[in-house]
Design brief:
Radius of gyration: 19 Å
Structural class: mainly beta
Strand order of the largest sheet: 1-2-5-6-7
Number of helices: 1
Number of domains: 1
Number of strands: 7
Distance between the termini: 31 Å
Strand content: over 45%
């Protein structure tokens, strides 16, 4: 994801994402679980848009909108795309250092 920081703690991001289908299930007429994974593509290409705020050096919050670009279905003539909203907390396990402070004189 490409991130742009208009101010120190707030960022806007955008970028590509490649997703993989781990499982796909549906309920049959009698309530039985059906494996429908063969009806869907194994991968999907999407584009993300998001924003976030860094509250401390090790924690922040973010929200993203994932807009599916590639068709996820294999069996019909319709084009079906996924649309996903993500909201989360990010925790940095190691303090980030800037490139300038890593350079040796």
């Amino acid at each position: 994801m490409f991130q742009f920081y208009p101010v120190k703690q707030f960022y806007i991001e955008t970028g590509p994402q490649l997703g993989a289908v781990a499982a796909a299930a549906s309920k049959g007429a009698k309530g039985e679980k059906l494996n429908v994974k063969r009806s869907f593509s194994n991968t999907q290409f999407a584009w993300n848009f998001g924003l976030g705020v860094n509250m401390k050096k090790t924690m922040g919050f973010y929200a993203r909108y994932n807009m599916g670009i590639s068709d996820v279905t294999l069996d019909n003539n319709q084009k079906d795309n996924s649309r996903v909203v993500q909201v989360g907390i990010k925790i940095l396990l190691k303090k980030q250092t800037s490139l300038a402070s890593n350079k040796k004189s």
